[in-house]
Write a structure and sequence with these properties.
Helix content: 40-55%
Strand content: 15-25%
Largest sheet: 8 strands, mixed
Number of strands: 10
CATH superfamily of the largest domain: Alpha/Beta hydrolase fold, catalytic domain
Structural class: alpha/beta
Number of domains: 2
Shape: globular
Length: 278
């Protein structure tokens, strides 16, 4: 056999072995990511992490999801609320990290507010997953309706980031209004942006397909998003907004990243929106 032929065979064998090792490693990585999907999506902080003495009067709220999981939240009362708001927070931390938000909603907007921790967050039991988180939110809405005497369809649903997807899902049952902050069209959309080398649209179990769900909501929508958002790119917010029915408003938060605090201007615009509700 000619030396050139032997060289080609050796090269081909080495290349095939290298390719096979790469493919096996890639498949193993995909399996690990599939197994750890919830850990890559939810970043809960359990009690006692956080500041559990907020600078506003709150009442502890306890309720039970349909599967028996005990959920904890804070209720912020108001003597004459212009709105009753259920606030669904994002995928990190717990309710204590939104103390400034609920204080602004109460004092600046004149709202009664319930904020709650999904299962696995704060003092809530269990571990988070999509069906469980949605069940927790429905239990929270039911508790808030009983507490305030409002019907569930009279409650304003408000969600930030992943909580926006939770609020959209609830809104398919009806709501007085829907308020979304820095949220997305679907979880696979965002995951595909951050992991373009992974076929996430085929592999992910978690969907939170808000761009589809929001088509079933026909009430007022107020959506805002930072145009410098590095976690949920602006285009996914616009995709969700474009899928929504009228009446709807969109506020561009100029220069804002995903977790930047809101300015007084944001709350002023939100107050105008609530003041214009039927």
């Amino acid at each position: 056999m000619a030396p050139q032929t032997v060289g080609r065979i050796c090269y081909n064998n080495v290349a095939w072995r290298a390719c096979r090792i790469f493919l096996i490693a890639y498949l193993v990585l995909l399996l690990v990511m599939m197994y750890l999907e919830n850990s890559l999506l939810y970043f809960p902080m359990k009690f006692p992490e956080g500041n559990w003495t907020p600078r506003i009067t709150v009442e502890d709220a306890w309720f039970t999801a349909v599967d028996g999981t005990k959920i904890h939240g804070w209720f912020v009362p108001h003597e004459q609320p212009r709105a009753v708001i259920l606030f669904c927070h994002g995928n990190g931390g717990n309710i204590t990290h939104r103390g400034d938000v609920i204080r602004e909603l109460r004092n600046r907007l004149g709202a009664a507010v319930l904020i709650f921790d999904y299962r696995g967050y704060g003092k809530s039991e269990g571990k988070p997953n999509e069906p469980g988180v949605l069940a927790d939110a429905r239990a929270a809405r039911s508790w808030l309706a009983r507490k305030t005497g409002a019907t569930e369809s009279q409650i304003v649903l408000m969600g930030e980031s992943l909580g926006g997807a939770v609020a959209v899902d609830l809104a398919t049952d009806g709501a007085r209004a829907l308020i979304l902050e820095n949220t997305f069209s679907s979880i696979p959309d965002v995951a595909a942006h951050h992991y373009p080398w992974v076929p996430v649209r085929l592999l992910m179990r978690t969907r939170f397909n808000s761009a589809v769900n929001i088509r079933s909501y026909h009430g007022p929508l107020y959506q805002s998003h930072g145009d410098r958002d590095s976690i949920v790119p602006f285009k996914f917010a616009k995709r969700l907004f474009d899928a929504a029915n009228e009446p709807k408003q969109f506020l561009v938060l100029e220069g804002a990243d995903h977790n930047d605090p809101h300015s007084p201007h944001y709350y002023d615009k939100l107050r105008e929106f609530l003041g214009g509700l039927p």
